[in-house]
TrEMBL record, chain A:
It is found in: Cell membrane. This is 4-azaleucine resistance probable transporter AzlC. It comes from Desulfosporosinus lacus DSM 15449. It is a multi-pass membrane protein. The keyword Glycosyltransferase does not apply. InterPro entries: Brnchd-chn_aa_trnsp_permease. The lineage of its organism: Bacteria, Bacillati, Bacillota, Clostridia, Eubacteriales. Its main location: membrane. One of its GO terms (biological process) is L-valine transmembrane transport.
Automatic annotation (TrEMBL), chain B:
It comes from the Bacteria. The chain crosses the membrane at residues 6-27, 39-59, 65-83. Keywords: Membrane, Transmembrane, Transmembrane helix. This is Branched-chain amino acid transport protein. It comes from Desulfosporosinus lacus DSM 15449. It holds the Pfam family AzlD. InterPro entries: Brnchd-chn_aa_trnsp_AzlD.
């Protein structure tokens, strides 16, 4: 599978890379303000510039970095509590990993381990929408992953360097870029009745959960409930046929 | 570089990596079970929805379904363009423009 993908000619490889670059550009633009904000936040939390940048280089997880930095600035420095929070915030990646597993388990182990490091919300959203449009593609996922990573690190560096000169870009409404790009990935998936039901359930549950539960729990709860119901409905319609 | 912060960064790196690689490592030898596969089919719709909708309906941490919620208005505009064009650049361009104008008002 992988070999045939890699050997089926340079043209196809170049094509996949090109499509990946084109499709990830808007998403990447949406990541920039978050990276800059991350750099600025690190400084305001009395972390050094190098500490803030290294956190982006190694952890590479926007939400947990924001929460980690906020806790540090609030004087919460207990290692255990920070790790537990990071775990809870990132649990959603277990679901994304499972969703990609049917495609990725066929890859060589080192490649799986490498790609897994870069499995962010954005990389997942782009890769899964590519699968729905055509098929799973390693060069596509790899390109998207590495571009997102480099931009995240460079944006953090920009935030650290410019931190004292610019105001927080998220207050300009630039954080809207993220949901806007995800909308384009979501809407083509809403093509059948079950998908629309799953959408409605996820929307209602996530909003209610976001209001009453801390952190990113709303994503996990809404995703588990809505996708489970989708799976059950799918099973029923198969029996009916 | 303080060692306290270094340990925190190392810890967060390992925990984050575990969540990203855990599922792959688990299913590496067994494959993904059929019942789970059926469940996972609707994960993309569910996860994208739960990433987007709360950001639009409660951007400030409380439910705000009104004309004063810039994120909701710009989100509806962006959803419409996304539906009509299926084009990321058009959607982002129009969505951000609406957002920008609303922030100025």
């Amino acid at each position: 599978m992988l070999l045939s993908n890699l050997l089926s000619g340079k043209n196809e490889l170049a094509e996949e890379v090109w499509v990946a670059l084109r499709e990830c550009t808007p998403v990447v633009l949406g990541v920039v303000p978050f990276g800059i904000t991350c750099g600025i936040m690190g400084l305001t939390a009395k972390m050094s510039g190098i500490e803030t940048i290294l956190m982006s280089v190694f952890v590479f997880a926007g939400a947990s970095q924001f929460i980690g930095i906020t806790m540090l600035s609030a004087g919460i420095t207990g290692w255990g509590i920070l790790m537990l929070t990071t775990l809870l915030v990132n649990l959603r990646h277990l679901i994304m990993g499972s969703s990609l597993a049917p495609y990725m388990v066929r890859l060589p182990f080192p490649l799986q381990a490498f790609l897994a490091f870069f499995l962010t919300d954005e990389a997942y959203a782009l890769t899964i929408s590519r699968i729905h449009k055509t098929r799973y593609s390693v060069p596509y996922q790899l390109t998207v992953s590495i571009v997102l990573y480099l931009v995240w690190v460079l944006a953090t560096i920009t935030g650290v360097v410019l931190g004292s000169y610019i105001s927080d870009p998220l207050t300009w409404g630039l954080d809207f870029a993220m949901p806007a790009t995800f909308l384009v990935l979501l809407i083509p998936l809403l093509a059948d009745r079950i998908s629309l039901i799953v959408f409605a359930i996820a929307a209602v549950v996530s909003v209610i959960a976001a209001l009453y539960l801390p952190g990113k729990w709303y994503i996990i709860i809404a995703c588990l409930i809505a996708s489970l119901i989708g799976g059950l409905l799918e099973g029923d319609s198969e029996h009916a046929q | 570089m303080r060692s306290e912060v270094l340990y925190i960064i190392i810890g967060m790196t390992l925990v984050t990596y575990f969540t990203r690689f855990g599922a792959l490592a688990l299913f590496r030898f067994t494959g993904v079970p059929i019942w789970l596969n059926r469940w996972l089919k609707y994960v993309p719709v569910a996860i994208l929805t739960s990433l987007i909708v709360p950001l639009l309906l409660s951007p400030k941490g409380y439910l705000d379904i009104s004309l004063y919620n810039d994120y909701l208005i710009a989100g509806i505009a962006a959803a419409f363009v996304a539906y009509k064009s299926r084009n990321i650049i058009a959607t982002l361009g129009l969505g951000m423009s609406v957002m920008f104008v609303l922030k100025l008002l």
